[in-house]
Amino acid sequence: MLPRHLARRAHILWICIIATLPASFALAADPKPDATLKNKAFEGSVYLDDKIKADPALAADSLAEGRKLIAKKAAEAERERKQEPELFRERGWSFERRYNFRSLVDGRYLSIVRADYEYTGGAHPNSWSDTILWDQTAKKRINIRRFFNETADNGPTLKAMRQGVIASLKAEKKKRGAEGIDEGAIEAIEPKLLKIGPIALAPSTVEGKSSGLSFYYAPYAVGSYAEGEYAAFVPWETLKPYLSPEGVTIFGGARPKGDADGMQ
Fold first, then answer.
1. Residues sharing a CB contact under 8 Å with residue 59, sequence separation 6 or more, in sequence order
2. CA-based Rg of the chain, rounded to a whole angstrom?
3. CB-hemisphere CA count at 13 Å for 96?
4. Are 19 and 42 within 8 A, CB to CB?
5. Using CB atoms within 10 A as the burial measure, which of 35, 70, 201, 240 is most buried?
């Protein structure tokens, strides 16, 4: 089995290969997109995980967001084609968004890894991930603040998170045989909720609990393009001193063996 960062790179390359094939070519195993948009300059698709489709409000929210984005990208591609048609003679731009299930915690909090793949010409496609935390009771997107006593910028909670993230990234880089993180990348990971990186609740060996937080970083953010995306994991025990009463309730157990961070 390929390491998850190599599997991720293979998936991106496969998307590029498929984009060059005739429209009549199809794979039985390839899931049908939940939304598509195609014109002379662009082809985009949106996919929802089955566990996301099981929540009608979340599915509608995600699909509306995805459709709005591919419509915007299609318009951008068409404008670019009219200005520089020679760039689109061999192939147009392509975009894919996948909403991947990460975890369901306390029967209420559903974490999603939103994976984007895009080709707009050049030497290679680009990929990046963001996250969504969905409250199934309130039927809306939320953040992790409620799980901690304080989440002030540069406060003790975010500083502890950042230390955990950097330690995890260094360990993953060593595992991949890659060079260490340069100072610029370290400085870019700030102890601020909006600057530390996309966050998801990681699954746990204890049903209904979260084993900690997963953080996601695009290629170039902490390494070369060839290294692919990175995910960092900070166990809940590291953050235990900062948990709110609700945080104490939802965290527990250990990270499941072989957990792939929701990166597909």
1. 48, 52, 53
2. 19
3. 21
4. no
5. 201
Give the separation between CA 207 and CA 175, rounded to whole angstroms.
29
**Dist. CA 258–CA 235, nearest whole Å:** 15
CB 71 within 8 A of CB 40: no
Q: Which residues of 169-180 are buried (b: 16+ CB within 10 A; e: fewer)?
A: beebbeeeebee
Task: Please state the pTM of the whole predicted model.
Answer: 0.86
pLDDT in tens, 142-168: 999 999 999 999 999 999 999 999 999
How far apart, in whole angstroms, are the C-alpha atoms of residue 117 and residue 9?
A: 11
In DSSP notation, 192-244 reads: STTTS--EEEEP-SSTT-B-EEEEEE-TTTSS-GGG--EEEEEEHHHHGGGB-
Looking at the chain, list the stretches that DSSP marks H as alpha helix, in order from N- to C-terminal side.
4-19, 50-53, 56-83, 156-176, 183-188, 236-239, 245-250
Distance, CA of 151 to CA of 104 (rounded, Å)? 22
One-letter amino acid for residue 55 of the chain: D
The low-confidence residues of the chain, meaning pLDDT below 50, are 1-2, 7, 10, 12-28
